[in-house]
Amino acid sequence: MSHFTTLKTQIVDKTYLKQALDDLGHSYQEGNLQINGYQGNKTTAEIKVLTQNPQYDIGFRKNGEAYEVVADWWGVKCINQNTFMEKVNQRYAYHAATGKLAEQGFALVSEEVEDTGRIHLVLRRAI
Predict the structure, then answer these.
(1) Any idea what DSSP says for residue 29?
(2) Is 28 strand, coil or helix?
């Protein structure tokens, strides 16, 4: 019996996803990969996040326009599912926002991170 859980996300751009994983210090592989789970069960993913337990991985795979996360969270004991998703989503949103705004001629002037983790960005459009 499989223990894989699939979570829908709003993540659509692989570049920003990889930047978020880099920011958070997660090692990952990219390609047509197998994600490991309970009793050797496997499923496919485009990005495989390595965990401290080599028998369990976290995967990202495209489903329609967005990526979904797939993992056997029972075996991924070293990473909390909710915390992982919150941090990945925040860093993804940061890179997506700054990247899209840079394409529109905005430059990052300052950045402030509150104790709560909320990020305030100040951007200015180049004239």
Answers:
(1) E
(2) strand
Where in 21-81 does DSSP place strands (E)?
A: 28-36, 42-49, 58-63, 66-71
What is the 8-class DSSP label of residue 115? T
Q: What would the pLDDT profile of 5-64 be if each residue is shown by its tens digit?
A: 999 999 999 999 999 999 999 999 999 999 999 888 999 999 999 999 889 999 999 999
The tokens describing 48, both together, are 């495989």
Residue 7: exposure state from Cβ atoms within 10 A (0-12, 13-18, ≥19): middle
Beta carbons of 39 and 75 less than 8 angstroms apart: no
Asked whether the beta carbons of 18 and 31 are under 8 A apart, the reply is no
In angstroms, the Cα distances linking 58 to 49, 53, 85, 94, 112 are 5, 11, 11, 21, 30
In angstroms, the CA 7 to CA 11 distance is 11
Q: What crossing angle do the helices spanning 14-23 and 81-103 adopt, rounded to 10°? A: 120
Q: Which helix (H) or strand (E) holds 85?
A: helix 81-103
